[in-house]
Amino acid sequence: MSKVYINKHPLVQHKISILRDKNTGTNEFRSLVGEIAMLMGYEALNDLPTEEVEVETPLEKCMTEMISGRKIAIVPILRAGLGMVDGILQLVPASKVGHIGLYRNEETHTPVEYYCKLPSPIEERIIVVTDPMLATGGSAIDAISQIKKHGGKKIKFMCIIAAPEGLKALEEAHPDVQIYVGHLDRQLNSDAYICPGLGDAGDRIFGTK
Ligand code: PRP
Ligand code: URA
């Protein structure tokens, strides 16, 4: 089964609580999504391979560690996943960024694809898929299937809020994917919204409705 990492860090939990507040405005919401992504990215990338390189300090030469080999691709699920990209780019500025466009059909709650552009070649990259919300899991499952079709192998999925239903579905569909969750919420409602959740993440990041 997938490895699931549920975040417990007080800073992440504090920022998620502000996101949940319906009175938090677009500006602050957007900044917080980026900050949370950076804090979660710090954890999610803690297994990046490193190699010893020689560096000359002002005092002497030494062998020291730097990130090696495999490059990173960040792949946001449009739109809301875009809000998490800059936070991870601050950690790894050399990352490439792909995009997968999906939206949920409001009646069936199933994802509808409209765009896919990934860095090539993708096979050797560590791929971090971002979406603040994992509700039914349909969008994440679909996005990861598309990435695999293009040859993606080492995939991590990062979300800020997950519903138990979506987490289970994603684990079953893609057992090889590492899943990073900012907070595991109670359940979905009859409209497939996460409760207590934070509402519509895309609308709150971009100020639409
Ligand atoms: C939201 C969210 C996820 C998806 C989660 O996007 O950002 O992509 O719903 O739901 P699921 O797990 O049931 O698939 P939405 O479809 O509202 O599009 P948007 O990002 O353009 O607002
Ligand atoms: N998408 C969101 O933005 N929020 C939810 O609660 C569910 C899907």
From TrEMBL:
Binds 1 Mg(2+) ion per subunit. The magnesium is bound as Mg-PRPP. It comes from the Bacteria. It catalyses: UMP + diphosphate = 5-phospho-alpha-D-ribose 1-diphosphate + uracil. Transmembrane segments: none annotated. Coiled coil: none annotated. HAMAP family: Upp_B. This is Uracil phosphoribosyltransferase. The gene is upp.
